[in-house]
Amino acid sequence: xxxxxxxxxxxxxxxxxxxxxxxxxxxxxxxxxxxxxxxxxxxxxxxxxxxxxxxxxxxxxxxxxxxxxxxxxxxxxxxxxxxxxxxxxxxxxxxxxxxxxxxxxxxxxxxxxxxxxxxxxxxxxxxxxxxxxxxxxxxxxxxxxxxxxxxxxxxxxxxxxxxxxxxxxxxxxxxxxxxxxxxxxxxxxxxxxxxxxxxxxxxxxxxxxxxxxxxxxxxxxxxxxxxxxxxxxxxxxxxxxxxxxxxxxxxxxxxxxxxxxxxxxxxxxxxxxxxxxxxxxxxxxxxxxxxxxx
Length: 294
Description:
The chain is built from 7 helices and 15 strands. The chain is an alpha+beta fold.
């Protein structure tokens, strides 16, 4: 959480806990969490080496999002915080059971990213009014986009223009991103943060979305032509798929207008067909081919 706020090193080291000396490796982070009201400093001991519980994690998550006042009105810790965490969708994952493990925290944190932050609006000075504002990501100048990677500095699809080196085009947004060849033509789930120095968004996390993607290993391909694909399914059935003239072809990361017949089927490798607009027709054919040398 502290790193997420961009405070990799918090200058204050005095936590007020007897079992967390200023020399402790996480003293700064614990002090920050106390100062921000994410954890309670009412107890003389913190037990830094003890595993965190679901209730404690919920308290931190709900506090980060600004819902502490609502959680307190619903009974406080732990029931009120668990209730609010549930209503925000922060518990929509399958716990590993027993202790609250690192993987559980990752799941909860992922749910937090799209939750809206509660904001306080003081209207007439007599009472506070609360409204849901931006999502946590946007509140921290981090944005999310789900779209197709249409271009990099080598390839451009669908009438787009190539980008500068180290950039990609996701939908209509140009973003700073390295090593993008494997992303071209794929629908992605992308998080990016505005980089003031570069005056552009910089990708901080990106992954391909498998929806609408058909991947076939080379040994399962019977034939692949410009208008039709025949292959063996995992159930050992033979499947045929029609390709249209608008399907764009990428061969080892390079766009091709057409390919010799012997290159359509890789001897070693695979092909991926992507229907990124979900219209039932494949938009991009990606051929990944390797040479074997002994």
